[in-house]
Amino acid sequence: MKNKNQMEKATFAAGCFWGVEAAFRRIDGVLGTVVGYTGGTKPEPTYREVCSGKTGHAEAVEVTFDPMVITYEQLLDIFWRIHDPTELNRQGPDIGTNYRSAIFYHTPEQKAAAETAKEQLSVSKKFHGKKIATEIVPATEFFRAEEYHQQYYEKCGQGYCAIRQIRE
Length: 168
Prior knowledge:
Blueprint: E1 8-14, H1 17-25, E2 30-38, H2 47-51, E3 58-65, H3 72-82, E4 90-91, E5 94-95, E6 101-105, H4 108-123, E7 135-138, E8 143-144, H5 152-156
Parallel strand pairs: 6-7
Antiparallel strand pairs: 1-3, 1-6, 2-3, 2-8, 4-5
Helix pairs in contact: 3-4
């Protein structure tokens, strides 16, 4: 049994949360995932309200991980690989601020790691000079999405999300 003191949280928004959750659930060291809404102004928003664009929330995934098995930097690498961080407020066919690319940091160390990774990606040639649109902001209250969204791919099979799945 894992010592609860070893667990940490990371929160990422990278478009449709179904695909983001599926990508992280497959990774060794990830102990759990929850899809939900964060970064907005309305308490307890619903999916419909978030999709309206009026609450300011992003569809996000809260990842609980064991840092003795996988580091936050490794989670960041997965985050960058599964979506296009140069897209502003969209991923593939999904358009709106709720689909924005964002890292919601929980500690000063996570903030520093995210900023360093973003800077390194910005100067790399991976995105052919396109500006990285990913926000790096403090984690705020996370609202769990409705149950039918949790582990959606496991319940319903692959969806249409533009998120690239990592095969490791």
